[in-house]
């Protein structure tokens, strides 16, 4: 699988829903798990964006819901932001790394996974990346203006096939859920390792 580091634009949702801060409970999948083994970890927020009522556009929410049964680390904050228009208020000031999960329409075949970083992007010239009324770029700009921007921000997205009324994901996107989860776990582990070296 080839992961690209950029995306042109994305689809968009109509309504904003109240975000959910998902508890770290539930049945754990032993094949995909992350448990804290250190006394000191970085603060990481995994933010799932999307509308569950529009099939593939809800990928971010589907993924963070699955993560609650996988991640057992008090320093990882998992948030279902739904279609909340401005996520900057949801991210804690002490966040070291922000991982955003979203559907990204960049023109590749459905199921293509993207991973790109905002760390070296000029937010003033960056194209909209979000599916929502206030985009990811706008929320990050607001956080930067308020000196609340995380040290590192990455987006893990997937090319949707179907954005239409319905609760289920298309097979092309559903088949890639495990792969996307592994990418998120890898981001968390790499961030914790990097922070240990810094400290």
How would you describe what is shown here?
- The protein is an alpha/beta fold and 199 residues long.
- It has a single domain, classed as HybD-like (Rossmann fold).
- Helix content is 23%, strand content 19%.
- It contains 4 helices and 8 strands, in the order E-E-E-H-E-E-E-E-H-E-H-H.
- The protein has helices spanning 59-67, 136-145, 171-174, 177-198, and strands at 20-21, 34-35, 44-49, 71-72, 76-82, 97-103, 113-117, 152-158.
- The strands form 2 sheets. It has a 6-stranded mixed sheet with strand order 1-5-3-6-8-7, covered by helices on one side.
- The protein is globular and about 40 Å long.
- The termini are far apart.
Question: Which properties best describe this structure?
Answer:
single chain, 199 residues, alpha/beta, Rossmann fold, six-stranded mixed β-sheet, two-stranded parallel ribbon, globular, disordered N terminus
What's this model, at a glance?
23% of the residues lie in helices and 19% in strands. With 199 residues, the protein is α/β, with parallel strands linked by helices. The strands form two sheets. It has a six-stranded mixed β-sheet, with helices on one face. Strands 2-4 form a two-stranded parallel sheet.
């Amino acid at each position: 699988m080839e992961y690209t580091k950029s995306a042109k634009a994305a689809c968009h949702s109509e309504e904003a829903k109240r975000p959910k801060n998902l508890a770290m409970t539930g049945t754990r999948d032993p094949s995909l798990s992350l448990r804290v083994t250190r006394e000191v970890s970085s603060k990481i927020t995994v933010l799932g964006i999307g509308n569950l009522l529009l099939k593939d556009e809800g990928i971010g929410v589907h993924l963070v819901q699955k993560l609650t049964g996988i991640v057992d680390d008090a320093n990882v904050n998992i948030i279902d932001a739904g279609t909340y228009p401005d996520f900057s208020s949801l991210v804690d000031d002490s966040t070291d790394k922000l991982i955003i999960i979203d559907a990204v329409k960049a023109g590749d075949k459905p199921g293509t996974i993207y991973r790109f970083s905002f760390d070296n992007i000029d937010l003033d010239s960056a194209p909209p990346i979000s599916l929502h009324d206030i985009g990811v770029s706008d929320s990050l700009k607001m956080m930067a203006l308020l000196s609340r921007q995380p040290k590192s921000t990455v987006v893990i997205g997937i090319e949707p096939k179907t954005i239409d009324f319905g609760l289920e994901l298309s097979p092309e996107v559903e088949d890639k859920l495990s792969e996307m989860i592994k990418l998120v776990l890898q981001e968390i582990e790499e961030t914790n390792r990097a922070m240990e070296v810094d400290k």
